[in-house]
Structure formats: C-alpha cells, structure tokens
Amino acid sequence: MNPRWPRRGLYLITPDLADTGELLARVGAVLADAALLQYRNKAADAALRREQASALLALCRRHDVPLIVNDDAALAADIGADGVHLGEDDEDISAARAWLGRGALIGASCYDSLDRARRAAEAGADYIAFGAFFPSPTKPHARRATPALLRDSAALGRPRVAIGGITPDNAPLLIDAGADLLAVISGVFDAADPAAAARAYRDCFEA
Ligand SMILES: Cc1ncc(COP(=O)(O)OP(=O)(O)O)c(N)n1
Ligand SMILES: Cc1ncsc1CCOP(=O)(O)O
Ligand SMILES: [Mg+2]
Predict the structure, then answer these.
(1) ipTM associated with this complex
(2) Whole-model pTM above 0.90?
(3) 9-206, CATH topology level
C-alpha cells in the first residue's frame, strides 16, 4: 500500500442521508478522529451521490483525511477522491485500477473468505476487509466472519479492515486479532454523542 495511506485507526463510513448539509455537519463533527472516510449512500441517485461525494472531498481535504468512494470507481476518479471500496457486486479491482491509477487506494470486501482475500491481494487490493463480525444495525443480513480470519490473513501482507456491528466495547477483541482499521457506521453516527464515540474507537488503538 502507498505509504501515504493510514494503516491503523477508525475507518468511518457515512450513513445514508439525503440532506447534504446534514451529512457534512454530522461527518464534520467526528472527522478529527478518523483515519479514513468512506462515502457510502445506497439510497441516493447518481446526481446526489456526486454532489455529496464532492462536498465530502472538500471537507476531507481540510482535515487531511483520505476519502474513499463506495462501489463507484468512475465517480471516485471524476471528483479526484483517493480511492474506491469494491464488493462482490461491484466492478473488479483491475478495472478500478485502470480508472484510478497506481497511487489510488483500492479496498476489497472479502466477507468470511480467506481465499477471496488472497485473490484480492493478488489482484492489487490495498486493503482487505472482513465481516460482519457482529450483528450490524446498518446491514442486518450481512454474512458473518470470525476473528480467526483476521489472524489467518496476516500473512497476506495487506492492512486488514474489520466491519459490522463494531462498538468501542467489542473493538479491542478485533484489534487483538489483527484488525488494522475498524470500519464503523452506526457505532459513531447513531451514538448519543458521536464525537465521544469516535474518540473512544481511536483510543482503542492507543491502549
Ligand atoms: C470497509 C468496507 N468493508 C466492507 C464493505 C461492504 O462492501 P459491499 O460488500 O460491496 O457492500 P456495500 O457496502 O456496497 O453494501 C464496505 N462498504 N466497506
Ligand atoms: C457495509 C457493511 N458490510 C458489512 S456490515 C456493513 C455495515 C456496517 O455498519 P455498522 O457499523 O452500522 O454495523
Ligand atoms: Mg459494494
């Protein structure tokens, strides 16, 4: 992975919000404690996604936090974002690399599969993501993974991202198993005090 990308910490993912002003305000309140931000909105049309991704990129630049776009390498390339996250229903890593170039950060969902992680690493993924590790309020039917997968994938030599139902309470278990980045939506954005929640995840890496 390009040394310019963060290798540890809170990987914040946006909730589906239709109001761009509200999205910016809620992300702006917690971005100081994030290592990476992913723009993910499964409910927006192409025009709104473009508007929101562009606005978040300006915010991220002010905080010096890289912006990853979920699902859509063309949008990431178009607005000059730092990378893309791809899952099994999205385009493949080589097509995204062609859109974004060598310096971009490309992440791959590997769910509960070490074999998929191996193939993603060989195809040039900069990080491999596993999960859901716990029941996810955002994606209740997500496939489940176990912490052993984090240990078993260490030899692939890519930063390992954990996702799915992660809270400041269960985060240490995943970090102990080898997670480098913790990808979180509801644990921050549905918290009573989102800024305090974001700080609590960050503190888990410093404990
Ligand atoms: C960091 C991270 N890990 C996993 C996912 C899930 O990607 P995918 O399986 O493509 O599902 P959607 O997010 O597109 O619903 C992710 N977005 N980010
Ligand atoms: C996109 C995705 N993929 C697996 S779980 C998940 C959602 C994570 O959100 P939360 O942190 O609210 O469980
Ligand atoms: Mg996807």
Answers:
(1) 0.99
(2) yes
(3) TIM Barrel (3.20.20)
